[in-house]
Design goal:
Blueprint lengths: L2 E7 L4 H14 L4 E5 L2 H13 L9 E2 L10 E5 L8 E4 L7 H5 L3 E7 L3 H16 L3 E6 L6 E6 L2
Parallel strand pairs: 1-6, 1-7, 2-4, 2-5, 3-4, 5-6
Antiparallel strand pairs: 7-8
Length: 153
Protein backbone atom coordinates (compact mmCIF):
# COMPACT_ATOMS: atom_id res chain seq x y z
CA UNK A 1 0.00 0.00 0.00
CA UNK A 2 1.36 3.41 -0.85
CA UNK A 3 1.02 6.24 1.64
CA UNK A 4 2.04 9.87 1.88
CA UNK A 5 3.14 11.34 5.21
CA UNK A 6 3.34 15.11 5.58
CA UNK A 7 5.52 16.41 8.41
CA UNK A 8 4.95 20.03 9.45
CA UNK A 9 8.08 21.07 11.34
CA UNK A 10 7.52 23.69 14.01
CA UNK A 11 10.14 22.72 16.61
CA UNK A 12 12.89 20.98 14.66
CA UNK A 13 14.96 21.65 11.60
CA UNK A 14 14.69 19.37 8.60
CA UNK A 15 18.07 17.84 9.54
CA UNK A 16 16.88 16.99 13.05
CA UNK A 17 13.61 15.47 11.85
CA UNK A 18 15.32 13.47 9.10
CA UNK A 19 17.66 11.40 11.28
CA UNK A 20 15.01 9.29 13.07
CA UNK A 21 12.94 9.08 9.90
CA UNK A 22 15.89 7.74 7.90
CA UNK A 23 16.72 5.31 10.72
CA UNK A 24 13.17 3.92 10.56
CA UNK A 25 13.38 3.51 6.80
CA UNK A 26 16.67 1.62 7.05
CA UNK A 27 15.29 -0.62 9.81
CA UNK A 28 12.55 -1.65 7.34
CA UNK A 29 15.26 -2.36 4.75
CA UNK A 30 13.81 0.31 2.50
CA UNK A 31 15.84 2.03 -0.19
CA UNK A 32 15.39 5.78 0.25
CA UNK A 33 15.53 8.55 -2.31
CA UNK A 34 16.00 11.83 -0.44
CA UNK A 35 15.14 14.69 -2.76
CA UNK A 36 15.89 18.38 -2.31
CA UNK A 37 15.00 21.23 -4.61
CA UNK A 38 18.52 22.66 -4.86
CA UNK A 39 22.06 21.38 -5.16
CA UNK A 40 23.02 23.44 -2.10
CA UNK A 41 20.40 21.62 0.04
CA UNK A 42 21.70 18.24 -1.03
CA UNK A 43 25.36 19.12 -0.47
CA UNK A 44 24.59 20.59 2.95
CA UNK A 45 22.68 17.48 3.97
CA UNK A 46 25.47 15.25 2.65
CA UNK A 47 27.97 17.12 4.86
CA UNK A 48 25.75 16.77 7.92
CA UNK A 49 25.22 13.05 7.34
CA UNK A 50 28.96 12.42 6.88
CA UNK A 51 30.26 14.56 9.70
CA UNK A 52 27.50 14.30 12.28
CA UNK A 53 29.36 11.77 14.39
CA UNK A 54 29.52 7.99 14.47
CA UNK A 55 26.22 7.63 16.36
CA UNK A 56 24.37 9.63 13.72
CA UNK A 57 26.08 8.26 10.61
CA UNK A 58 23.69 6.95 8.00
CA UNK A 59 25.04 5.17 4.89
CA UNK A 60 24.28 7.30 1.87
CA UNK A 61 25.58 8.67 -1.40
CA UNK A 62 24.98 11.42 -3.91
CA UNK A 63 23.27 10.96 -7.25
CA UNK A 64 25.83 11.08 -10.02
CA UNK A 65 28.48 9.37 -7.92
CA UNK A 66 29.98 5.97 -8.57
CA UNK A 67 27.79 3.19 -7.14
CA UNK A 68 24.79 5.50 -6.73
CA UNK A 69 22.42 2.61 -7.36
CA UNK A 70 23.91 0.65 -4.46
CA UNK A 71 23.25 3.33 -1.85
CA UNK A 72 20.58 2.63 0.81
CA UNK A 73 19.97 6.39 0.99
CA UNK A 74 20.50 8.35 -2.20
CA UNK A 75 20.54 12.16 -2.06
CA UNK A 76 19.33 13.74 -5.29
CA UNK A 77 18.17 17.05 -6.60
CA UNK A 78 14.64 17.46 -7.88
CA UNK A 79 14.09 15.93 -11.29
CA UNK A 80 16.24 12.86 -10.63
CA UNK A 81 14.31 9.60 -10.57
CA UNK A 82 15.69 6.38 -9.11
CA UNK A 83 14.17 3.14 -7.87
CA UNK A 84 13.15 3.49 -4.21
CA UNK A 85 10.83 2.21 -1.50
CA UNK A 86 10.52 5.57 0.22
CA UNK A 87 10.78 9.02 -1.33
CA UNK A 88 11.50 11.85 1.11
CA UNK A 89 11.11 15.40 -0.18
CA UNK A 90 12.56 18.44 1.59
CA UNK A 91 12.83 22.13 0.82
CA UNK A 92 9.83 22.29 -1.50
CA UNK A 93 10.92 19.39 -3.69
CA UNK A 94 7.95 17.78 -5.39
CA UNK A 95 6.72 14.26 -5.99
CA UNK A 96 4.74 13.10 -8.99
CA UNK A 97 1.61 11.01 -8.72
CA UNK A 98 3.42 8.20 -10.55
CA UNK A 99 6.25 8.24 -7.98
CA UNK A 100 3.78 8.18 -5.09
CA UNK A 101 1.92 5.23 -6.59
CA UNK A 102 5.15 3.27 -7.02
CA UNK A 103 6.64 3.84 -3.55
CA UNK A 104 5.67 2.19 -0.29
CA UNK A 105 5.79 5.63 1.30
CA UNK A 106 6.34 9.26 0.40
CA UNK A 107 7.38 11.70 3.14
CA UNK A 108 7.16 15.44 2.66
CA UNK A 109 8.90 17.59 5.28
CA UNK A 110 8.25 21.31 5.42
CA UNK A 111 9.16 24.09 7.85
CA UNK A 112 6.58 26.28 9.55
CA UNK A 113 8.58 29.41 8.72
CA UNK A 114 8.69 28.79 4.96
CA UNK A 115 5.42 29.88 3.34
CA UNK A 116 6.44 28.69 -0.13
CA UNK A 117 7.23 25.15 1.09
CA UNK A 118 3.94 25.08 3.00
CA UNK A 119 2.01 26.02 -0.17
CA UNK A 120 3.81 23.29 -2.13
CA UNK A 121 2.96 20.75 0.59
CA UNK A 122 -0.72 21.78 0.52
CA UNK A 123 -0.83 21.39 -3.26
CA UNK A 124 0.85 17.98 -3.02
CA UNK A 125 -1.66 16.87 -0.35
CA UNK A 126 -4.54 17.81 -2.66
CA UNK A 127 -3.02 16.17 -5.74
CA UNK A 128 -2.18 12.93 -3.97
CA UNK A 129 -5.37 12.54 -1.94
CA UNK A 130 -7.58 13.50 -4.90
CA UNK A 131 -5.89 10.66 -6.81
CA UNK A 132 -6.67 8.16 -4.02
CA UNK A 133 -3.39 8.07 -2.11
CA UNK A 134 -3.75 7.48 1.62
CA UNK A 135 -2.20 10.40 3.51
CA UNK A 136 -1.40 11.55 7.03
CA UNK A 137 -0.59 15.07 8.20
CA UNK A 138 1.64 15.24 11.28
CA UNK A 139 2.53 18.38 13.23
CA UNK A 140 4.76 19.00 16.22
CA UNK A 141 3.13 22.27 17.27
CA UNK A 142 2.26 20.84 20.71
CA UNK A 143 5.83 19.60 21.28
CA UNK A 144 5.67 15.99 20.20
CA UNK A 145 4.35 14.66 16.90
CA UNK A 146 0.58 14.45 16.65
CA UNK A 147 -1.65 13.31 13.82
CA UNK A 148 -3.74 16.28 12.67
CA UNK A 149 -5.45 14.90 9.58
CA UNK A 150 -5.75 11.60 7.76
CA UNK A 151 -7.20 10.43 4.47
CA UNK A 152 -7.68 6.70 4.16
CA UNK A 153 -8.23 4.76 0.98
Amino acid sequence: MNEAYFYHLTRQTVDQALMPLLDKCLSKKWRVLLRGSTTAQIKDLDEKLWYGGAESFLPHGLSGSENELDQPILLAQEGKIFSHDCLICIGGATVTLHEAQNAARVCILFQDDNAEDMQIARAQWKTLTDAGTAAQYWSQEQGSWSLKSERKL
